[in-house]
Amino acid sequence: MSALDLRPAAAPAPRARRILRHALMETTLILRNGEQLLLALVIPLGLIIGQAVAGARFGISREPFVASVIALGLWSSGFTSPAITTAFERRYGVLERLVATPLRRSDLLLGKATMIALLALGQAAVLVLAGLALGWRPAPTLAQSLVALAVVPFALVAFAGLALTLAGRASAELTLGVANLVYLVGAAAGLLVPVSGFPAWAQPLLTALPTTALGETLRAWATGSFAPRPLLVVLLWAVAAIALARKVFRWTS
């Protein structure tokens, strides 16, 4: 009979499992945060319900408005939540302690990216179902559906890059204030309000923003229009935002 080998054989989990577990932990922490749930679901759901109740009275068309609200939700998942959580993780030394674990820095970033994707997917599903239950009937074309499938991930990458840029340089308190302020500015700048509703002099500036690109894309998708230009806008923003975040992000406060 061979002897039983009880020597320790500690080893890190496979990389894919490490990233997935980290992403699930990040997602759980976000879902436990009441402020983040307020931005991600409560406010968008309230807007959708408000339009269903009183939208006709104020001349607000349901199809483009619900699409705009979905874009607003994706903005909160891609920018506001990652910026605030990452800033406080950096302040309290969580990031530098995680780097000391088998998680590499790239694993941490991939975990956050997976968290954003999971949140965005779940959030979009809830808002779409709520809209459909309240009478929303989008009429997308195949061409615009393909554009939207490309624009949404690039927009999320751009938002995440901007979030890491802010969280990687500013203090946690400043990031909290700026992220919430920028959330409101983004909502007004092309997410909830179409570009056509702004003065002519402001429209070229607004069409160059990733928030506007996402909002216009989803509105065009819901109304059966075709708007390919936002794809170029979010692609450029995604590349620039990730490059900037990589250059300026600091792991310690």
Structure characteristics:
253 residues; mainly alpha; globular
Global mean pLDDT = 88
Largest sheet geometry: none
Strand content: under 5%
Strand/helix succession: HHHHHHHHHH
Assign a percent range to the helix content: over 70%
Structural class assignment: mainly alpha
In whole angstroms, the N-to-C terminal distance is 57 Å
Low-confidence stretches: none
Tally of domains? 1
| DSSP strand tally | 0
- Count of individual helical segments: 10
Give the overall shape, derived from the CA principal axes.
globular
Cα Rg? 20 Å
| Assembly classification | single chain
Summarize the structure.
By secondary structure, this protein is mainly α. Helices cover 74% and strands 0% of the residues. It has one domain (15-248).
Describe this structure in words.
There is one protein chain. This protein has 253 residues and is mainly α. The protein is built from ten helices and no strands. The chain has helices at 15-31, 34-54, 62-91, 94-99, 105-133, 142-167, 172-191, 203-207, 210-223, 229-248. It is globular and about 80 Å long. The model has no long low-confidence stretch (mean pLDDT 88).
